[in-house]
Request: fold
Amino acid sequence: MERLLSAKHWQLFVLTYLPPFLLYAIFAALIFGNIDNIDGASFAVGMTAFLPVFFLVILVVTAILYGWYYMVGTRLQRKIPTEYRLDTKYFKVAFFYPLVYVFLFVIGMFALAGFGMSGGEAVISPDAEPEFPMAFLMIIPLHLMAIASMLYCMYFIAKTIVTAERREPVRGSDFVGEFFLIWFWPIGIWFLQPRINAIWARESGAGNIEDHFV
Reply:
């Protein structure tokens, strides 16, 4: 996973955005190219075949993106002088909470909808009486906590990058730009990753630092 810190900006962009884009493009081309010949049954069959591939691609992309978050937030601490290193305890809690929350949320949605398995296919149980209003009221605070956790992760990663660059304590105003670059990751990665490459190479002896800006 540490290779994510030495990967080029374009490599990360391609790995995280090209697969979903191609998948959407292929699916749209198949749908609109055969719009006159598609009925409800054939569409359902197509979606059944498409969804596993879609979820697999999303899983891989999410693993790369979150792996990058974790590596920057934890491994980059090695490049910070010991007395200025950040405590990663709360970062790790904030990092794992959204992952666990989304996993349990998906399982919970299937359970609340009364999904069962019949012949290997998901079917809605006619006896299920999901209490969606109450369920969603319970989800709201958990969802807000997940959002807050992600914002904290972005804050922590931005602070880590700037602290590792300057090798001294930094204030919030010093890394507000990096925070928004992380938030808008498809754009921000083009600016942040060369700096991370330089930090990682600076003390690792991995060649010429300027090479990482190419």
